[in-house]
Amino acid sequence: MKFTITRSVFLKTLNDVSRAISSKTTIPILTGLKLVLSDTGLVLTGSDADISIESRIDATSENNDLQIESTGSIVLPARFFSEIVKRLPENTMTLEVKDNFQTLITSGSSEFTINGLDANNYPRLPEISAPQPLMLNAEVLKQLINQTVIAVSNQESRPVLTGVHFVISGAQLMAVATDSHRLSQRTLDLEQPTTTDYDVIIPGKSLVELSRMLTDDIDQVELRIAENQVLFIIGQTAFYSRLLEGNYPDTTRLIPTSSTTTVEFAAPALLAAIQRASLLSHESRNNVVRLTLDVATQSAIIYGNSPDVGNVEEVLQFSALSGENLEISFNPDYMKEALQAFGQTTVEVAFTAPLRPFTLVPSEDRDHFIQLITPVRTY
């Protein structure tokens, strides 16, 4: 096996695939990067058994300048190989596999020899065919992921809550995540209705890595779902993730259908106020801020307090306030992450009682995005 390639092109593909490679794995060969060279191109594969990424560099593409001398395959130690490629001196590099899987990497006057492994021992990726794959807008998918993964649980005691629940039916995709303290639910209208319904749980960690790969130059993502795997196809790259087993809790019953108090804020202004209030609340053990709404005087005041440091009080600006007077306490970190997911929009916050979960929805597109936060009991 021997080929020469433009180093920058190879490094970009290598970086994408390396997202799936972990040094902490019970299968030693998975600490390596698999390379398979055929007459049509070069395929790089990385996996940690949960996530697998396979990316292809076409021999016919002019940008790659891939020159193939002999085909073959090899598994190379990913960490060392990546560091070597990053530091090679020239714009092009040559890789040649010799006897006993010894691999020679040359660029200019620099020459490295590293030991590889037989690629036949590398686990095979599943073949996921889909009679009707789903096509998703890459920018919208990235937004959906970023808006829902904030609410996944970090606790392995309930594994299903460490993932995002995807429900696809007809012309709609719903993604929801909860850690039992907060919930985030986003709905998408699909351009092409699906004839097959899906109900799957995708690990939050997988979706975070996928989101990082959805750069501005990508328009569409193809989604395929199998029994225990999901596949996202992004251009020349295939992103596989295992699915979480189990039944996701019925989250629809958690979302209130009515409210007693509603208030509208500009999301960036409310976010900035909560960031200021949390400067002091982080110094106290309970990390809580308090919001007081007075409908009669049309006032909204936020408080942060630390017995050791001091307290903060700020009058908030809002565009509408109606219903009953309310005083409620909540974790400011949950609120900050929720507001960041709304961006520059106006957000409506709806309350039912001081100790009942409250909801946040964008004022303009309230049917497609909702977040729920459980308040904190302070007495």
TrEMBL record:
BP GO terms, sorted: DNA strand elongation involved in DNA replication
UniProt keyword list: Cytoplasm, DNA replication, DNA-binding, DNA-directed DNA polymerase, Nucleotidyltransferase, Transferase
Residues of the DNA polymerase III beta sliding clamp C-terminal domain: 253-376
InterPro entries registered for this protein in UniProt: DNA_clamp_sf, DNA_polIII_beta, DNA_polIII_beta_C, DNA_polIII_beta_cen, DNA_polIII_beta_N
Similarity field: Belongs to the beta sliding clamp family.
NCBIfam families documented for this protein: dnan
Protein name: Beta sliding clamp
